[in-house]
Protein: Retropepsin-like aspartic endopeptidase domain-containing protein
Amino acid sequence: MMIRILREHFYCLLAIFLLITSDSVLSDSKTDQPEPRHILGWVESIRLEPWGLKMLARIDTGANTSSMSARDIHQFKKGNKDWVRFILDFGTEKGKPTRTVEIERPLLRSHKIKQHSGISQERLIIAMDVCLANEIHKVEFNLIDRRALNYPILLGRKALAGVALVDSSRTHLSKADCGHVKKKKKKNDQSDELAIPE
Structure:
């Protein structure tokens, strides 16, 4: 009888010890991810750097990767490296006309992306600096024609990890200035040309 009581106490103490040590192991693994610094809505303004191109982006925690609208995609060699050239169409604000720019970026790789329909599609991957919540972040984008969608940019979980939490009931919770100053147009200046450096 005494042995049985001692055995029960031993197992109880062992269970408590295991709970305490497993909790400390779990809490140590949580410190590997930096704490998010911002709260974003499901739609935010961003800027593509270094040009400061301002546009709206959908913030989507249901997507693992980020996507950028691209049409007329062409791969080419620059020196001995693979590059990609594409056209990005985007609106700056609702009601304003769509702008079109040609962008060239080094090609990181191609990757199969699984769509909601379950079908995998091969997409080209590039990296760009993005101003989000007044901070510059390097984001990998897969290129896909998003002209039929409301937003030319979709930011997924990889781009948001350690940066922000998302409040899906709100929009436009942050600014995307990153040192850019809004220029006032002269009355005579109607041009909207944009030169993108290589």
Notes: Residues 2-30 form the longest helix (29 residues). DSSP finds two helices and twelve strands in the chain. Confidence is low (pLDDT under 50) at residues 189-196. The radius of gyration is 24 Å.
